[in-house]
Amino acid sequence: QIIYLGSRMVYEIEIAKSSLTVEITNPQEHKIFSKGEEVTVAFKEKSLHIIPYEEIKK
């Protein structure tokens, strides 16, 4: 799934039979991917926010 929201793009990516929601801010400065296109996912460690599972269940 691809959603264009003006100042950001939201992609729903399938990884190992799970889904990952990815939000790209300022999409004019990034490549726009098509549905079904194969992509590589990488994370900047300082940009990650890990939420403990216990907090998600609340």
TrEMBL record:
The lineage of its organism: unclassified sequences, metagenomes, ecological metagenomes. Pfam families: TOBE_2. It comes from marine sediment metagenome. Residues 2-50 form the Transport-associated OB type domain. GO terms for molecular function: ATP binding; transmembrane transporter activity. GO terms for cellular component: ATP-binding cassette (ABC) transporter complex. InterPro entries: Transp-assoc_OB_typ2. Coiled coil: none annotated. This is Transport-associated OB type 2 domain-containing protein. Transmembrane segments: none annotated.
